[in-house]
Specification:
Order of helices and strands: HHEHEEHHEEHEEHEEHEEEEHEHHHHHH
Structural class: alpha+beta
Radius of gyration: 54 Å
Strand content: 25-35%
Number of strands: 14
Strand order of the largest sheet: 4-5-6-7
Protein backbone atom coordinates (compact mmCIF):
# COMPACT_ATOMS: atom_id res chain seq x y z
CA UNK A 1 0.00 0.00 0.00
CA UNK A 2 2.80 2.32 0.94
CA UNK A 3 4.70 1.46 -2.24
CA UNK A 4 1.62 2.24 -4.32
CA UNK A 5 1.33 5.64 -2.62
CA UNK A 6 5.04 6.31 -3.28
CA UNK A 7 4.81 5.50 -6.98
CA UNK A 8 1.60 7.40 -7.21
CA UNK A 9 3.22 10.46 -5.74
CA UNK A 10 6.12 10.09 -8.20
CA UNK A 11 3.57 9.92 -11.01
CA UNK A 12 1.84 13.02 -9.70
CA UNK A 13 5.20 14.80 -9.45
CA UNK A 14 6.04 13.94 -13.04
CA UNK A 15 2.63 15.10 -14.25
CA UNK A 16 3.06 18.48 -12.52
CA UNK A 17 6.46 19.06 -14.23
CA UNK A 18 6.69 20.95 -17.49
CA UNK A 19 8.14 19.21 -20.59
CA UNK A 20 11.38 21.21 -20.30
CA UNK A 21 11.82 20.15 -16.68
CA UNK A 22 11.10 16.53 -17.59
CA UNK A 23 13.84 16.59 -20.24
CA UNK A 24 16.25 18.26 -17.81
CA UNK A 25 15.46 15.68 -15.13
CA UNK A 26 16.04 12.80 -17.58
CA UNK A 27 19.35 14.30 -18.75
CA UNK A 28 20.36 14.86 -15.12
CA UNK A 29 19.63 11.29 -14.11
CA UNK A 30 21.35 9.84 -17.20
CA UNK A 31 24.44 12.05 -16.79
CA UNK A 32 24.65 11.24 -13.10
CA UNK A 33 24.47 7.51 -13.72
CA UNK A 34 27.02 7.69 -16.54
CA UNK A 35 29.31 9.86 -14.41
CA UNK A 36 29.14 7.43 -11.51
CA UNK A 37 29.78 4.52 -13.84
CA UNK A 38 32.78 6.24 -15.45
CA UNK A 39 34.31 7.28 -12.14
CA UNK A 40 33.88 3.81 -10.70
CA UNK A 41 35.46 2.22 -13.78
CA UNK A 42 38.37 4.63 -13.52
CA UNK A 43 38.77 3.91 -9.81
CA UNK A 44 38.67 0.18 -10.37
CA UNK A 45 41.12 0.30 -13.27
CA UNK A 46 44.59 -1.06 -12.34
CA UNK A 47 47.48 1.40 -12.09
CA UNK A 48 49.90 0.52 -14.88
CA UNK A 49 53.67 0.90 -14.55
CA UNK A 50 56.47 0.37 -17.07
CA UNK A 51 57.78 -3.19 -17.01
CA UNK A 52 60.48 -2.70 -19.68
CA UNK A 53 61.19 0.05 -22.20
CA UNK A 54 63.34 0.40 -25.32
CA UNK A 55 62.89 -3.28 -26.13
CA UNK A 56 63.73 -4.87 -29.41
CA UNK A 57 60.94 -6.49 -31.37
CA UNK A 58 62.23 -9.97 -30.54
CA UNK A 59 62.32 -9.30 -26.79
CA UNK A 60 58.96 -7.54 -26.88
CA UNK A 61 57.35 -10.49 -28.65
CA UNK A 62 58.81 -12.99 -26.15
CA UNK A 63 57.63 -10.95 -23.13
CA UNK A 64 54.23 -10.40 -24.77
CA UNK A 65 53.80 -14.17 -25.20
CA UNK A 66 54.80 -14.75 -21.56
CA UNK A 67 52.21 -12.23 -20.32
CA UNK A 68 49.47 -13.84 -22.40
CA UNK A 69 50.30 -17.26 -20.98
CA UNK A 70 50.01 -15.98 -17.40
CA UNK A 71 46.87 -13.90 -18.26
CA UNK A 72 48.36 -10.66 -16.94
CA UNK A 73 46.82 -7.43 -18.28
CA UNK A 74 49.26 -5.28 -20.23
CA UNK A 75 49.52 -2.17 -22.34
CA UNK A 76 51.86 -1.48 -25.26
CA UNK A 77 53.28 1.89 -26.22
CA UNK A 78 56.15 3.40 -28.22
CA UNK A 79 55.41 1.12 -31.19
CA UNK A 80 55.59 -1.98 -29.02
CA UNK A 81 58.97 -1.13 -27.45
CA UNK A 82 57.46 -0.32 -24.04
CA UNK A 83 55.31 -2.76 -22.04
CA UNK A 84 53.29 -1.74 -18.97
CA UNK A 85 51.53 -4.00 -16.46
CA UNK A 86 49.72 -3.37 -13.15
CA UNK A 87 51.92 -1.76 -10.53
CA UNK A 88 51.55 -4.52 -7.93
CA UNK A 89 52.89 -7.15 -10.37
CA UNK A 90 55.90 -5.32 -11.83
CA UNK A 91 58.68 -6.61 -9.58
CA UNK A 92 57.31 -10.14 -9.42
CA UNK A 93 57.10 -10.28 -13.21
CA UNK A 94 60.63 -8.92 -13.64
CA UNK A 95 61.99 -11.71 -11.46
CA UNK A 96 59.99 -14.28 -13.41
CA UNK A 97 61.23 -12.96 -16.77
CA UNK A 98 64.81 -12.80 -15.49
CA UNK A 99 64.63 -16.49 -14.62
CA UNK A 100 63.65 -17.13 -18.25
CA UNK A 101 66.55 -15.04 -19.58
CA UNK A 102 64.37 -12.15 -20.73
CA UNK A 103 64.98 -9.64 -22.07
CA UNK A 104 67.87 -11.03 -24.05
CA UNK A 105 68.83 -7.77 -25.75
CA UNK A 106 68.29 -9.69 -29.04
CA UNK A 107 71.65 -11.40 -28.54
CA UNK A 108 72.19 -15.01 -27.58
CA UNK A 109 75.01 -15.62 -25.13
CA UNK A 110 76.53 -18.72 -23.63
CA UNK A 111 73.06 -20.10 -23.00
CA UNK A 112 73.40 -21.54 -26.49
CA UNK A 113 75.34 -24.38 -24.89
CA UNK A 114 72.61 -25.15 -22.36
CA UNK A 115 70.98 -27.49 -24.86
CA UNK A 116 73.80 -29.42 -26.47
CA UNK A 117 72.64 -31.73 -29.23
CA UNK A 118 74.20 -35.09 -29.93
CA UNK A 119 76.04 -35.38 -33.19
CA UNK A 120 76.99 -31.69 -33.36
CA UNK A 121 80.05 -31.25 -35.54
CA UNK A 122 83.11 -29.26 -34.54
CA UNK A 123 82.22 -26.60 -37.11
CA UNK A 124 78.83 -25.99 -35.50
CA UNK A 125 80.39 -25.84 -32.06
CA UNK A 126 82.85 -23.20 -33.27
CA UNK A 127 80.01 -21.22 -34.84
CA UNK A 128 78.00 -21.35 -31.62
CA UNK A 129 81.04 -20.34 -29.61
CA UNK A 130 81.53 -17.33 -31.89
CA UNK A 131 77.85 -16.41 -31.60
CA UNK A 132 78.03 -16.70 -27.81
CA UNK A 133 81.04 -14.39 -27.65
CA UNK A 134 79.31 -11.86 -29.87
CA UNK A 135 76.17 -11.94 -27.75
CA UNK A 136 78.00 -11.63 -24.43
CA UNK A 137 80.10 -8.70 -25.69
CA UNK A 138 76.99 -6.96 -27.04
CA UNK A 139 75.25 -7.35 -23.66
CA UNK A 140 78.28 -5.99 -21.81
CA UNK A 141 78.63 -2.97 -24.10
CA UNK A 142 74.89 -2.35 -23.80
CA UNK A 143 75.37 -1.68 -20.07
CA UNK A 144 76.75 1.77 -20.90
CA UNK A 145 74.19 4.46 -20.11
CA UNK A 146 74.81 6.16 -23.46
CA UNK A 147 74.34 2.99 -25.54
CA UNK A 148 70.82 1.89 -26.45
CA UNK A 149 71.88 -1.30 -28.22
CA UNK A 150 75.05 -2.85 -29.57
CA UNK A 151 76.03 -5.53 -32.04
CA UNK A 152 79.41 -7.24 -32.30
CA UNK A 153 80.79 -9.13 -35.31
CA UNK A 154 83.86 -11.29 -34.85
CA UNK A 155 86.18 -12.96 -37.34
CA UNK A 156 88.25 -15.48 -35.44
CA UNK A 157 91.94 -16.00 -36.22
CA UNK A 158 92.76 -18.56 -38.90
CA UNK A 159 95.31 -20.92 -37.41
CA UNK A 160 97.96 -22.35 -39.71
CA UNK A 161 101.17 -24.33 -39.44
CA UNK A 162 103.05 -21.50 -41.13
CA UNK A 163 103.24 -18.11 -39.49
CA UNK A 164 103.04 -16.20 -42.75
CA UNK A 165 99.73 -17.91 -43.60
CA UNK A 166 97.98 -17.04 -40.33
CA UNK A 167 95.28 -14.38 -40.46
CA UNK A 168 94.71 -12.17 -37.40
CA UNK A 169 91.37 -11.92 -35.61
CA UNK A 170 89.21 -8.86 -36.32
CA UNK A 171 86.11 -7.37 -34.75
CA UNK A 172 83.48 -4.78 -35.61
CA UNK A 173 81.22 -3.06 -33.08
CA UNK A 174 78.07 -1.15 -34.10
CA UNK A 175 76.59 1.14 -31.46
CA UNK A 176 73.12 2.68 -31.41
CA UNK A 177 73.29 5.69 -29.12
CA UNK A 178 70.46 7.07 -27.03
CA UNK A 179 68.93 10.37 -28.01
CA UNK A 180 71.19 13.24 -26.96
CA UNK A 181 73.95 10.92 -25.69
CA UNK A 182 77.42 10.21 -27.03
CA UNK A 183 80.59 8.44 -25.99
CA UNK A 184 83.82 10.16 -25.12
CA UNK A 185 87.22 9.24 -26.50
CA UNK A 186 88.17 7.36 -23.34
CA UNK A 187 84.91 5.38 -23.36
CA UNK A 188 85.45 4.34 -26.98
CA UNK A 189 88.98 3.20 -26.15
CA UNK A 190 87.54 1.31 -23.20
CA UNK A 191 85.20 -0.59 -25.53
CA UNK A 192 88.11 -1.36 -27.87
CA UNK A 193 90.24 -2.76 -25.05
CA UNK A 194 87.27 -4.67 -23.66
CA UNK A 195 86.74 -6.49 -26.96
CA UNK A 196 90.48 -7.02 -27.42
CA UNK A 197 90.86 -8.55 -23.97
CA UNK A 198 87.92 -10.93 -24.54
CA UNK A 199 89.23 -12.53 -27.75
CA UNK A 200 92.47 -14.42 -27.90
CA UNK A 201 94.92 -12.96 -30.42
CA UNK A 202 92.80 -9.88 -31.17
CA UNK A 203 94.78 -6.66 -31.32
CA UNK A 204 93.32 -3.22 -30.69
CA UNK A 205 94.26 -1.96 -34.15
CA UNK A 206 92.06 -4.68 -35.67
CA UNK A 207 88.87 -3.45 -33.97
CA UNK A 208 86.45 -1.06 -35.66
CA UNK A 209 83.79 0.85 -33.72
CA UNK A 210 80.99 2.58 -35.67
CA UNK A 211 77.94 4.45 -34.37
CA UNK A 212 74.41 4.33 -35.77
CA UNK A 213 75.13 7.19 -38.20
CA UNK A 214 78.09 5.39 -39.77
CA UNK A 215 80.68 7.58 -38.06
CA UNK A 216 83.87 5.68 -37.27
CA UNK A 217 84.73 6.08 -33.61
CA UNK A 218 87.76 3.78 -33.66
CA UNK A 219 89.36 1.64 -36.34
CA UNK A 220 92.18 1.18 -38.77
CA UNK A 221 92.21 4.83 -39.78
CA UNK A 222 91.99 6.06 -36.22
CA UNK A 223 94.39 8.99 -36.08
CA UNK A 224 95.05 8.73 -32.40
CA UNK A 225 98.43 10.41 -32.87
CA UNK A 226 97.13 13.96 -33.26
CA UNK A 227 93.54 13.83 -32.11
CA UNK A 228 94.29 11.66 -29.08
CA UNK A 229 97.13 13.89 -27.91
CA UNK A 230 94.97 16.98 -28.35
CA UNK A 231 92.20 15.46 -26.25
CA UNK A 232 94.69 14.51 -23.57
CA UNK A 233 96.09 18.01 -23.61
CA UNK A 234 92.68 19.57 -23.12
CA UNK A 235 91.89 17.13 -20.33
CA UNK A 236 95.22 17.87 -18.65
CA UNK A 237 94.67 21.61 -18.92
CA UNK A 238 91.19 21.33 -17.45
CA UNK A 239 92.50 19.18 -14.62
CA UNK A 240 95.20 21.74 -13.77
CA UNK A 241 92.70 24.62 -13.82
CA UNK A 242 90.16 22.73 -11.68
CA UNK A 243 92.88 21.81 -9.20
CA UNK A 244 93.95 25.44 -8.81
CA UNK A 245 90.33 26.61 -8.55
CA UNK A 246 89.59 24.09 -5.81
CA UNK A 247 92.72 25.05 -3.91
CA UNK A 248 91.82 28.75 -3.97
CA UNK A 249 88.09 28.34 -3.33
CA UNK A 250 88.55 26.11 -0.29
CA UNK A 251 90.85 28.66 1.31
CA UNK A 252 88.50 31.57 0.60
CA UNK A 253 85.45 29.70 1.88
CA UNK A 254 87.25 28.92 5.11
CA UNK A 255 87.76 32.66 5.66
CA UNK A 256 84.60 34.13 4.10
CA UNK A 257 82.05 31.34 4.51
CA UNK A 258 80.51 28.77 2.16
CA UNK A 259 79.41 29.99 -1.26
CA UNK A 260 80.83 33.44 -0.61
CA UNK A 261 83.51 33.27 -3.31
CA UNK A 262 83.64 32.39 -7.01
CA UNK A 263 87.02 31.52 -8.54
CA UNK A 264 88.02 30.92 -12.15
CA UNK A 265 91.51 30.00 -13.30
CA UNK A 266 92.90 30.08 -16.82
CA UNK A 267 96.24 28.36 -17.36
CA UNK A 268 98.42 28.71 -20.45
CA UNK A 269 100.29 25.40 -20.74
CA UNK A 270 103.12 24.59 -23.12
CA UNK A 271 102.58 21.12 -24.59
CA UNK A 272 105.60 21.21 -26.91
CA UNK A 273 108.22 18.55 -26.39
CA UNK A 274 111.81 19.86 -26.21
CA UNK A 275 114.89 17.67 -26.49
CA UNK A 276 118.44 19.09 -26.39
CA UNK A 277 121.75 17.23 -26.80
CA UNK A 278 125.04 18.99 -25.97
CA UNK A 279 128.68 17.84 -26.36
CA UNK A 280 131.61 19.72 -24.78
CA UNK A 281 135.35 19.08 -25.35
CA UNK A 282 138.11 20.02 -22.89
CA UNK A 283 141.50 20.42 -24.68
CA UNK A 284 143.45 20.85 -21.45
CA UNK A 285 142.25 17.50 -20.20
CA UNK A 286 144.37 15.22 -22.41
CA UNK A 287 145.04 11.59 -21.70
CA UNK A 288 147.35 9.30 -23.76
CA UNK A 289 145.07 6.76 -25.27
CA UNK A 290 147.63 4.76 -27.31
CA UNK A 291 151.29 5.01 -28.39
CA UNK A 292 153.15 3.20 -31.19
CA UNK A 293 156.95 3.16 -31.77
CA UNK A 294 159.09 1.62 -34.60
CA UNK A 295 162.98 1.48 -34.38
CA UNK A 296 165.41 0.20 -37.07
CA UNK A 297 169.27 0.13 -36.57
CA UNK A 298 172.10 -1.15 -38.94
CA UNK A 299 175.99 -1.16 -38.15
CA UNK A 300 179.31 -2.93 -39.50
CA UNK A 301 181.80 -2.86 -42.58
CA UNK A 302 180.37 -3.23 -45.98
CA UNK A 303 181.86 -3.11 -49.52
CA UNK A 304 180.54 -0.49 -51.78
CA UNK A 305 180.13 -1.32 -55.42
CA UNK A 306 181.85 1.14 -57.76
CA UNK A 307 181.96 1.64 -61.49
CA UNK A 308 179.38 1.43 -64.18
CA UNK A 309 176.85 -1.25 -63.62
CA UNK A 310 176.16 -3.69 -66.38
CA UNK A 311 177.65 -6.74 -68.16
CA UNK A 312 179.89 -4.94 -70.64
CA UNK A 313 181.98 -2.99 -68.16
CA UNK A 314 182.52 -6.10 -66.16
CA UNK A 315 183.91 -7.98 -69.14
CA UNK A 316 186.27 -5.19 -70.21
CA UNK A 317 189.26 -4.00 -68.40
CA UNK A 318 188.04 -0.47 -68.55
CA UNK A 319 185.00 -1.38 -66.62
CA UNK A 320 186.87 -2.82 -63.69
CA UNK A 321 186.82 -0.77 -60.53
CA UNK A 322 188.24 -1.05 -57.08
CA UNK A 323 186.23 -1.44 -53.92
CA UNK A 324 187.03 0.79 -51.04
CA UNK A 325 186.78 -0.66 -47.59
CA UNK A 326 185.25 1.30 -44.69
CA UNK A 327 182.86 1.33 -41.73
CA UNK A 328 179.04 2.27 -42.16
CA UNK A 329 175.88 2.66 -39.66
CA UNK A 330 171.99 2.92 -40.19
CA UNK A 331 169.28 4.02 -37.65
CA UNK A 332 165.49 4.74 -38.08
CA UNK A 333 162.77 5.47 -35.50
CA UNK A 334 158.92 6.05 -35.90
CA UNK A 335 156.60 7.10 -33.00
CA UNK A 336 152.81 7.58 -33.05
CA UNK A 337 150.95 8.86 -29.95
CA UNK A 338 147.07 9.09 -29.75
CA UNK A 339 145.57 11.40 -27.12
CA UNK A 340 141.96 11.29 -25.72
CA UNK A 341 140.51 14.75 -25.14
CA UNK A 342 137.97 15.18 -22.30
CA UNK A 343 134.35 15.35 -23.56
CA UNK A 344 130.94 15.69 -21.85
CA UNK A 345 127.62 14.80 -23.55
CA UNK A 346 124.32 15.89 -21.95
CA UNK A 347 120.74 15.25 -23.15
CA UNK A 348 117.95 17.39 -21.71
CA UNK A 349 114.22 16.61 -22.25
CA UNK A 350 111.79 19.31 -21.12
CA UNK A 351 108.61 17.81 -19.59
CA UNK A 352 105.38 18.24 -21.52
CA UNK A 353 102.75 20.46 -19.91
CA UNK A 354 104.76 23.28 -18.39
CA UNK A 355 102.67 26.18 -17.06
CA UNK A 356 103.69 29.33 -18.86
CA UNK A 357 101.13 31.75 -17.49
CA UNK A 358 98.29 31.73 -14.96
CA UNK A 359 95.35 34.14 -14.76
CA UNK A 360 93.04 34.08 -11.74
CA UNK A 361 89.72 35.93 -11.40
CA UNK A 362 87.99 35.86 -8.02
CA UNK A 363 84.69 37.39 -6.91
CA UNK A 364 84.09 37.66 -3.18
CA UNK A 365 80.94 38.72 -1.39
CA UNK A 366 80.89 41.52 1.15
CA UNK A 367 79.46 41.61 4.65
CA UNK A 368 75.89 42.29 5.76
CA UNK A 369 74.50 44.10 8.77
CA UNK A 370 70.97 44.30 10.14
CA UNK A 371 69.47 47.79 10.00
CA UNK A 372 66.04 49.12 10.82
CA UNK A 373 63.89 49.47 7.72
CA UNK A 374 60.45 50.76 6.91
CA UNK A 375 57.59 49.69 9.13
CA UNK A 376 59.91 48.59 11.91
CA UNK A 377 61.22 45.62 9.88
CA UNK A 378 64.88 44.73 9.90
CA UNK A 379 66.76 44.69 6.61
CA UNK A 380 70.17 43.42 5.63
CA UNK A 381 72.50 46.17 4.42
CA UNK A 382 75.45 45.30 2.22
CA UNK A 383 78.89 46.51 3.34
CA UNK A 384 81.82 46.24 0.91
CA UNK A 385 85.11 44.87 2.13
CA UNK A 386 88.04 47.15 2.88
CA UNK A 387 90.87 47.45 0.31
CA UNK A 388 93.33 46.09 2.89
CA UNK A 389 91.25 42.93 3.22
CA UNK A 390 91.08 42.50 -0.56
CA UNK A 391 94.85 42.94 -0.74
CA UNK A 392 95.31 40.15 1.82
CA UNK A 393 93.02 37.87 -0.19
CA UNK A 394 94.99 38.63 -3.35
CA UNK A 395 98.24 37.80 -1.58
CA UNK A 396 96.79 34.47 -0.40
CA UNK A 397 95.70 33.60 -3.96
CA UNK A 398 99.17 34.42 -5.32
CA UNK A 399 100.75 32.06 -2.86
CA UNK A 400 98.30 29.30 -3.72
CA UNK A 401 99.02 29.39 -7.49
CA UNK A 402 102.81 29.94 -7.15
CA UNK A 403 102.54 33.43 -8.64
CA UNK A 404 105.50 34.55 -10.75
CA UNK A 405 105.74 38.05 -12.14
CA UNK A 406 108.39 37.07 -14.69
CA UNK A 407 106.07 34.80 -16.62
CA UNK A 408 103.22 37.35 -16.66
CA UNK A 409 100.82 35.88 -14.11
CA UNK A 410 97.76 37.94 -13.23
CA UNK A 411 95.42 37.85 -10.23
CA UNK A 412 92.24 39.94 -9.99
CA UNK A 413 90.05 40.04 -6.87
CA UNK A 414 86.76 41.95 -7.04
CA UNK A 415 84.26 42.59 -4.28
CA UNK A 416 80.71 42.22 -5.69
CA UNK A 417 77.45 41.69 -3.74
CA UNK A 418 76.03 38.27 -4.47
CA UNK A 419 72.35 37.78 -5.29
CA UNK A 420 70.33 36.93 -2.18
CA UNK A 421 69.01 33.38 -2.16
CA UNK A 422 66.14 32.23 0.06
CA UNK A 423 67.28 30.11 2.98
CA UNK A 424 65.33 27.02 2.06
CA UNK A 425 68.17 24.61 1.59
CA UNK A 426 67.22 22.67 4.69
CA UNK A 427 63.69 22.08 3.47
CA UNK A 428 64.82 20.81 0.08
CA UNK A 429 65.94 17.59 1.63
CA UNK A 430 62.34 16.68 2.50
CA UNK A 431 61.18 16.65 -1.10
CA UNK A 432 62.59 13.25 -2.11
CA UNK A 433 60.95 11.71 0.98
CA UNK A 434 57.51 12.51 -0.46
CA UNK A 435 58.05 10.43 -3.58
CA UNK A 436 57.94 7.02 -1.84
CA UNK A 437 54.87 8.18 0.12
CA UNK A 438 53.04 9.00 -3.10
CA UNK A 439 54.01 5.72 -4.71
CA UNK A 440 52.84 3.81 -1.65
CA UNK A 441 49.43 5.46 -1.23
CA UNK A 442 48.72 6.38 -4.87
CA UNK A 443 45.87 3.80 -5.25
CA UNK A 444 44.05 5.29 -2.23
CA UNK A 445 43.99 8.72 -3.81
CA UNK A 446 41.56 7.44 -6.44
CA UNK A 447 38.91 6.60 -3.87
CA UNK A 448 39.36 9.98 -2.23
CA UNK A 449 38.83 11.68 -5.59
CA UNK A 450 35.67 9.61 -6.12
CA UNK A 451 34.26 10.63 -2.72
CA UNK A 452 35.00 14.31 -3.33
CA UNK A 453 33.42 14.11 -6.78
CA UNK A 454 30.23 12.55 -5.42
CA UNK A 455 29.96 15.11 -2.62
CA UNK A 456 30.53 18.12 -4.86
CA UNK A 457 28.14 16.75 -7.50
CA UNK A 458 25.36 16.38 -4.92
CA UNK A 459 25.89 19.82 -3.35
CA UNK A 460 26.43 21.94 -6.45
CA UNK A 461 24.60 20.03 -9.20
CA UNK A 462 21.94 17.58 -8.09
CA UNK A 463 20.45 19.50 -5.16
CA UNK A 464 20.05 22.87 -6.97
CA UNK A 465 18.53 21.16 -10.00
CA UNK A 466 16.05 19.21 -7.88
CA UNK A 467 14.94 22.44 -6.18
CA UNK A 468 14.53 24.13 -9.51
CA UNK A 469 12.55 21.23 -10.93
CA UNK A 470 10.19 21.01 -7.98
CA UNK A 471 9.62 24.74 -7.62
CA UNK A 472 5.88 25.66 -7.77
CA UNK A 473 4.52 22.15 -7.14
CA UNK A 474 5.73 21.40 -3.58
CA UNK A 475 2.38 22.20 -2.00
CA UNK A 476 0.49 19.75 -4.25
CA UNK A 477 2.69 16.68 -3.74
CA UNK A 478 2.61 14.82 -0.46
CA UNK A 479 5.97 13.07 -1.02
CA UNK A 480 7.84 16.35 -0.76
CA UNK A 481 6.21 17.08 2.62
CA UNK A 482 7.74 13.94 4.04
CA UNK A 483 11.28 15.10 3.24
CA UNK A 484 13.25 16.66 6.14
CA UNK A 485 13.08 20.45 6.27
CA UNK A 486 16.15 22.55 5.71
CA UNK A 487 17.39 25.13 8.18
CA UNK A 488 15.92 27.97 6.14
CA UNK A 489 12.52 26.29 6.05
CA UNK A 490 12.56 25.81 9.82
CA UNK A 491 13.43 29.49 10.37
CA UNK A 492 10.66 30.60 8.03
CA UNK A 493 8.22 28.38 9.97
CA UNK A 494 9.14 30.03 13.24
CA UNK A 495 8.76 33.42 11.64
CA UNK A 496 5.26 32.64 10.40
CA UNK A 497 4.17 31.57 13.92
CA UNK A 498 4.55 35.08 15.32
CA UNK A 499 0.86 35.15 16.53
CA UNK A 500 1.36 32.23 18.92
CA UNK A 501 4.36 33.96 20.38
CA UNK A 502 2.35 37.10 21.07
CA UNK A 503 -0.41 35.10 22.75
CA UNK A 504 2.12 33.31 24.99
CA UNK A 505 3.60 36.64 26.08
CA UNK A 506 0.19 38.08 26.82
CA UNK A 507 -0.74 35.05 28.93
CA UNK A 508 2.48 35.36 30.93
CA UNK A 509 1.79 38.99 31.64
CA UNK A 510 -1.82 38.42 32.86
CA UNK A 511 -1.51 35.27 34.97
CA UNK A 512 1.99 34.37 36.04
CA UNK A 513 1.03 31.35 38.17
CA UNK A 514 -1.08 29.71 35.46
CA UNK A 515 1.53 30.36 32.78
CA UNK A 516 4.23 28.92 35.05
CA UNK A 517 2.24 25.71 35.50
CA UNK A 518 1.78 25.40 31.74
CA UNK A 519 5.52 25.77 31.13
CA UNK A 520 6.26 23.11 33.76
CA UNK A 521 3.86 20.71 32.04
CA UNK A 522 5.64 21.39 28.72
CA UNK A 523 8.95 20.60 30.32
CA UNK A 524 7.62 17.33 31.73
CA UNK A 525 6.30 16.33 28.29
CA UNK A 526 9.61 17.09 26.60
CA UNK A 527 11.48 13.78 25.94
Amino acid sequence: MASNDFFGQLKALSENLSPGKKITLAVLLTGTLLGFAAIMLWAGRPDYQVLYSDLSMEDSAAIFQRLKEQKIPYQLSANGKTIMIPRDQVYEMRLDLASQGLPQQSSAGFELFDETKLGMTEFLQNVNYQRALQGELARTIGQFDEVESARVHLVMANKSLFVEDQEPATASVILKMRSGKWLGKEQVQGIVHLVSSSISGLKTENITVVDGNGKMLAGFNDSSGVDGVTSDQLAFQEKVEKSLETRIRTMLEKALGPERAVVRVSADIDFRRHEETEERFYPDNQVVRSEKRFNENAAGPAGTAQGIPGAVPNMSDRGQGSSAAGNSAFQKEDRTVNYEIGKMTSRTVTPVGVIQRVSVAAMVDGTYREVAGKGGKTEMKYLPRAPEELAKLESIIKGAVNFETARGDKVEVVNIPFAATPMTAEGDGDVPAEVPFYKTYAPLFKYGIVAIFVLLSFIFVIRPLVRWLTAGSMGDVEILKQLPMTVGEIERGYGEGGGFKDQALEMLNKDNETSLGVIQEWLKETP
